[in-house]
Amino acid sequence: MEAAFPGRFDYNATRKFDFIDKFTGEIIELTTTKQAGNHAARLGGWESIVTYTPFP
After folding, report:
1. 26 CB contacts (<8 Å, ≥6 apart)?
2. Which residue from 1, 10, 21, 54 could staple onto 26, CB 3.0 to 4.6 Å apart?
3. Is residue 3 assigned to a domain?
4. pLDDT tens track of the chain, all 56 residues?
5. Does pTM top 0.90 for this prediction?
């Protein structure tokens, strides 16, 4: 994300969520498709869940 959008996202080192978009204020959580439901339940639904396919 940093390479595509320099300076836009702040990494959040706590375990609550992964990034915050400094332009929109949106909270972003990265997770696998399999874990998206667990992350949404843990975070209360106020974030964007972004899924990815892990490398083998």
Report:
1. 20, 47, 48
2. 21
3. no
4. 788 889 999 988 776 788 888 988 888 877 777 777 776 776 665 556 565 566 65
5. no
